[in-house]
Amino acid sequence: MRNKLFFLVILFLITISCEQKTGISGLSKGTSINKRVEHLLKKMTLDEKIGQLNQYTSRWEMTGPAPENSDSMFMYNMIKKGQLGSMLNVVGANAARKVQTWAVDSSRLGIPLILGYDVIHGLKTMFPIPLAEAASWDPQVAYTSSRIAAEEASASGINWTFAPMLDIARDARWGRIMEGSGEDPYLGSKMAVARVEGFQGDNLASENTIAACAKHFAAYGFVEAGREYNTVDISEYTLQNIVLPPFKAAVNAGVATVMNAFNTLNGTPATMNIHLQRDLLKGDWNFKGFVVSDWASINELILHGVAANKKEAARLAITAGSDMDMEGNVYIEELKNLVENNEVDETLIDDAVRRVLRVKFELGLFDDPFKYCNPKREKEVVFSSKNLAASRNVARKSIVLLKNSEGLLPLSKTGKKIAVIGELAKSKDVPLGSWRGKAIPNSAVSLLEGIENVVGTQNVTFAKGPVYIKNKRGFTTELEINTTDRTGMKDAVSVASKANVVVMALGEDCFQTGEGRSQTNIALKGFQLELLKKVFEVNKNVVVVLMNGRPIQINWMAEHVPAILETWFLGSQSGNAIADVLFGDYNPAGKLPVTFPRAVGQEPLYYNHLNTGRADKTDMVFWSHYTDESNAPLFPFGYGLSYTTFHYSNLKLSSKELLPNGKLTITATIENTGERTGEEVVQLYVRDLVGSISRPVKELKGFQKIKLKAGEKKEVTFELSAKDLQFFGAENRWKTEPGEYRIWVGTNSAEGLESGFTLK
Ligand code: NOJ
What is the pTM of this model? Predict the structure, then answer.
């Protein structure tokens, strides 16, 4: 008996000391995460559980330690009471350490915070905007930039990024088109996986990996008329076949979290959408992570007219599987009463809390809450020369050569007087893009600097032309474009007239794209087109360097100007990367991830459309067309040139028939018929000719980027199985349909060698 008592006392002491050593989980690292979650959950009060589902933004500028002002006291008190499970916008190792210390030391259970931030295309070392990066058609490139972004973020206190944005976008008017991978679900899925793997690495618990967040679930890219936050009304067919594949791919790749969307989907807001979140995401797809609402999107259920008040909004959102309330104050105010009045079952709260805790455990926060707060690492890693070099490489791979009619490019590095024209050419800020994390303002290499870095200053003359944007940029003001003051026009034309070649930067300000920046007019604004025309009158050797975050309308330019480079917003090393291409140190290989229209009235314009019943031109007017513009795009999806040329030949199929369990091997020979080494993205498209529902005229099913020396040939092989031809049909299920298929292997979505096969 004495022995037994002694034994029990020892056991008690060991337990207490373990609790202290292993942190609040009370169970050591070796124990399974599920067990640790359950152990912790049992100790939590209802208030503490709800606290884990509450997320606030920091209300101070967090580049240094959190100041002791009233806002931080408010946060401190919330954290202390266990009423906050997550914060966003706390950036910097010291700032993060401070709030994390509050959580770990002051709250009853010491549960660490998960700290999120919009690390969209870099933290401080800026990479190209995601749309640009998708133009590389190179998932490895997206992996690299996300990996480095995660390294910088994880050293700066952040353990969760609200990226990647996986919204398929077909409408150039939508400002957030810049944030995704464009219009195609296949390319979008490949990029999604690469980015999730880049952010999360092999092991979420490593100190240099962070949790990713697939957003916005779902269909936000389909807002009507491209207007931000607008209604979305699309068929289940479009939802399943076009919108959801990148999300499904991200879930399969192990994405830790998902963010829902502001929009309604066929009348039901995404935030309370049981079909999306419960049936598909957490049901069919077996997603184990947690869903965070978008900023106050739970409150917005009231404005959508589906909830009368916050209480209803909270009930609808938690029932639909929205686990964490971003900035809405709804869960923290309403959930307790709802549970106590039996209007919400506590098991729903438990499920949400489990999900949040699991991700925190996976991140290793319980084992070392401060692993992401390392000022030494922050100093070494963030904005390092290594990261900048990687950014330059990603940037040049994101550039698309749209036109090079007289072999004007690449430019000679010697013996030419170069006029560099346009305000954007001198900007060290615009290339950083929208959603720029903690980019240092004006920290990009400008186009002008990039050119001067190659050819020196003596042969380069700059003229900015008329001012483009009149006011300062900010969240509270719309950008005001100069349409009255032509000062600078004459000077620019005169500079152009004295040069051998003109490099003109045109496009848009980076803050004309991004959240809240939809536009009805996607043509060049201000005096840009007038400037271009005047310059072209005095000098025909014009290379336009486009900077933009969406497809823009450039018809006149495309018709007249000999060379056009699409450079989007390329990030920190923009100017150097563009110069690499301008002077031929890098042979461009990017391809458009979005269709470029001839007129905004064609939008949404995308390659994988249905045929309609009247697609063919007839003598009468009764066919599907515009009477004032062609149906065709200005540049199709998948389009992009090189300084060399590629010839496609010898398309072969291993069989004319594909059996349900079989494989079809497709080969084609690509030859570099030009004079320099180049890369080509070889694209595979199919069309299901007769389906039970109308099927797209083309669908991307594969691509490969190959490098060929001058004169070199390569046989490229693709494999197709029946599964690759699956679609979500009218019976509300995935299926393949036997029948005739056409197939193309080509250089873009509008050209290619064609063949066909029968699916048995
Ligand atoms: C609103 C945006 O829609 C979302 O993408 C972003 O992550 C959050 N704000 C947080 O900044």
Answer: 0.96
565 and 436 assigned to the same domain: yes
Q: Tokens 């904005």 correspond to what residue?
A: 383
| Number of helices (H), then strands (E), in the chain | 23, 26
CATH number at residue 464: 3.40.50.1700
Q: How many domains does the chain have?
A: 2
Say if 229 falls within a structural domain: no
Residues 561 and 458 in one domain: yes
How confident is the chain (760 residues) per 10-residue block, as mean pLDDT?
54 45 64 96 98 88 50 86 95 93 96 98 98 98 98 97 98 98 98 98 97 98 98 98 98 98 98 98 98 97 98 98 96 98 98 98 97 95 98 98 96 97 98 96 98 97 96 85 97 98 98 96 98 98 98 98 98 98 98 98 98 95 97 98 98 98 97 98 98 98 98 98 97 96 98 98
CA-closest residue to ligand 1 atom 11? 118
- The CA distance from 43 to 47, in Å, is 11
**Which listed residue (138, 167, 171, 294) is catalytic?**
294
Residue 297's alpha-carbon distances to 185, 318, 442, in angstroms, are: 26, 12, 33
Q: Tell me which residue has its CA closest to atom 7 in ligand 1.
A: 162
pLDDT at 628 (0 to 100)? 97
Ligand 1 is surrounded, with C-beta below 6 A, by 88, 118, 162, 215, 294-295, 515
Within this chain, do residues 667 and 519 fall inside the same structural domain, yes or no? no
Tell me, yes or no, whether 196 lies in a domain.
Answer: no
294 is catalytic: yes
Q: What is the CATH number of the domain that holds 727?
A: 2.60.40.10
Give me the domain span that covers residue 707: 646-759
- Point out the domain boundary residue: 602, 617, 637: 602
Q: Tens digit of pLDDT for each residue in 8-60?
A: 555 444 444 444 444 565 677 889 999 999 999 999 999 999 999 999 988 66
458-to-273, 317, 410, 419, 450 alpha-carbon distances in Å: 62, 63, 20, 11, 14
| Residue 81 located in a structural domain | no
**Closest Cα to residue 129, out of 606, 523, 593?**
593
9 in a structural domain: no
Give the 3-state secondary structure of residue 738: coil
The whole-angstrom distance between residue 315's C-alpha and the CA centroid of its chain comes to: 31
What's the pLDDT tens digit per position in 322-350?
A: 999 999 999 999 999 999 999 999 999 99
Pocket test for ligand 1, best of 118, 179, 210, 517 (most atoms within 8 A of CB): 118
